Amino acid sequence: MPLILAILLLPLFLLSPASGNKYTVGDEQGWNPGVNYTVWVDKHRPFHVGDWLVFYYQSGMADIVQVDETAYDKCDASHPISNYSKGRSFAFELNQTKPYYFICSYGYCYQGMKVSVLAHPLPPPSPPPSGDHSAARSVAGSPFFAFAASAIAVLGLFF
Ligand SMILES: *[C@@H]1O[C@H](CO)[C@@H](O)[C@H](O)[C@H]1NC(C)=O
Ligand SMILES: *[C@@H]1O[C@H](CO)[C@@H](O)[C@H](O)[C@H]1NC(C)=O
Ligand SMILES: *[C@@H]1O[C@H](CO)[C@@H](O)[C@H](O)[C@H]1NC(C)=O
After folding, report:
1. CATH number 2.20.25.10 is the correct assignment for the domain at 15-120
2. Mean pLDDT of the chain
3. Distance 24 CA to ligand 3 centre (A)
4. Is residue 75 within 8 Å of residue 29, measured between CB atoms?
């Protein structure tokens, strides 16, 4: 069923580049103890506003607690900004330009089960291919243009 959904939704993602990228936290290792998330972040950054972090974990074995920087450094989940532990996955949209901090409150944070990403502003739309003018010039100088021009000239002789 999820596969069918993915296939159905795939064209939507392909058609809407503005919807942001989806990053599976920890890649195939998921959200689990013993994964170095600093390495994961270094591999995937930069992250941008509109990107999604998707956490996959074993049901009942982990939670995702969003905290501030101080709490992140201390693995302190006592004053969460938000927390999530239901089911087996959690998707979070980076919807502001700022750093985000997530920890697991089940005791694994001290061994590194924490992740912090900085959401950068959206990159500016890619500039139009440079030199529309030079493209026009190269058409004008092309053999096709020369052929078309002479064809028109020849037609002009008849009309
Ligand atoms: C998560 O949130 C619920 C409800 O807001 C709260 O009862 C619980 O203590 C929180 N857990 C953690 C680890 O912050
Ligand atoms: C940003 O995301 C949070 C949590 O996903 C949500 O509660 C909030 O409404 C969102 N803000 C905007 C401006 O979309
Ligand atoms: C993660 O890997 C980085 C780079 O190899 C290393 O500096 C850091 O200490 C590691 N963190 C943990 C929690 O093992």
Report:
1. no
2. 81
3. 19
4. no
